[in-house]
Design a protein that fits this description.
276 residues; 5-stranded parallel sheet; 18% strand; 6-stranded mixed sheet
């Protein structure tokens, strides 16, 4: 089976490549940054480097290689679409012109539709990276206080609200008050902003899956970069939606947070949380 990974930043494309090669597939990857290309080159059959804005060229490559399945993996910065120096090809311009808005889901579904027109199946990230999904539980030596658990429950409801509007998937909470909300800047910068607003720290970060999440793209991910920002900003608790969040290098993450006395937990909502 010929599989193409559309590779963004972080380690998710690397983990995807390992999983797909282990399953015996011929794996190609389209990358947009030199660092990503360097990480993937030893793991895949061929790396193809393109500018993010050359959509037509990438679709032509998929046809030329007779790709059968495609996987999106890694972080993609939507904000690059607003850079004036970015040159789009005609296919990209036509796609952008037809969009009703530039929400993440709107844009990704438009790209998926173009890929599927070629007879290529866009596969679920969860199917390829099942081992990275982490279940309910507290993974660190530090345990949440009763007040922190109140913030987790409150934060879960708030995060589900913004996720349902396709704004972001992370909120930062302190004493049942929303300190910061993730938007186009991403989780890490939202955490940094919370640290600037609360120099003493002590806040809780809650990250969730979108309601009706399309698992072909954008499953929430936590890795060491996020956790380093968490510690630098003096955050106290990071809670992710259990069974619906990828954790990269889980053992390293837990060991690091144990050193800094930060709570790391997978959360499943109680009935009242689901009902709002």
């Amino acid at each position: 089976m010929k599989v193409m990974i559309i590779a963004g930043r972080d380690k998710l494309p690397v983990e995807a490549a390992k999983s797909l090669k282990k399953a015996g597939h011929e794996v190609h990857s389209i990358v947009f940054e030199d660092e990503v290309a360097g990480n993937l080159s030893p793991l895949v059959d061929q790396v193809h480097r393109y500018r993010f804005s050359l959509v037509g060229a990438q679709l032509n490559l998929l046809k030329k290689l007779e790709i059968e399945k495609l996987l999106f993996a890694g972080k993609f910065d939507k904000i690059v679409l607003d850079r004036k120096q970015l040159k789009f090809d005609m296919k990209a311009l036509l796609m952008l012109a037809k969009l009703k808005d530039r929400r993440d889901d709107t844009m990704m579904l438009a790209i998926v539709a173009e890929v599927e027109k070629l007879g290529i199946e866009v596969i679920s990230q969860a199917d390829v990276l099942q081992d990275l999904l982490v279940s309910e539980g507290i993974y660190t030596k530090a345990k949440p206080t009763a007040a922190q658990m109140e913030d987790v429950r409150f934060g879960y409801r708030m995060a589900k609200g913004i996720a349902g509007l396709d704004i972001g998937q992370t909120v930062i909470i302190n004493k049942k008050n929303v300190v910061a909300v993730e938007a186009i800047e991403g989780t890490d910068k939202a955490i940094i902003r919370a640290g600037e607003l609360l120099p003493k720290g002590g806040f809780t970060v809650v990250k969730v899956e979108k309601p009706k999440q399309d698992k072909r793209f954008d499953i929430p991910v936590i890795g060491m970069t996020t956790l380093r920002n968490m510690v630098a900003a003096k955050g106290a608790v990071i809670a992710f939606e259990a069974d619906k969040t990828f954790i990269i290098d889980k053992e390293e993450c837990v060991a690091y947070l144990n050193q800094h006395n930060v709570v790391f937990m997978g959360y499943l909502p109680e009935i009242e949380d689901k009902e709002g």
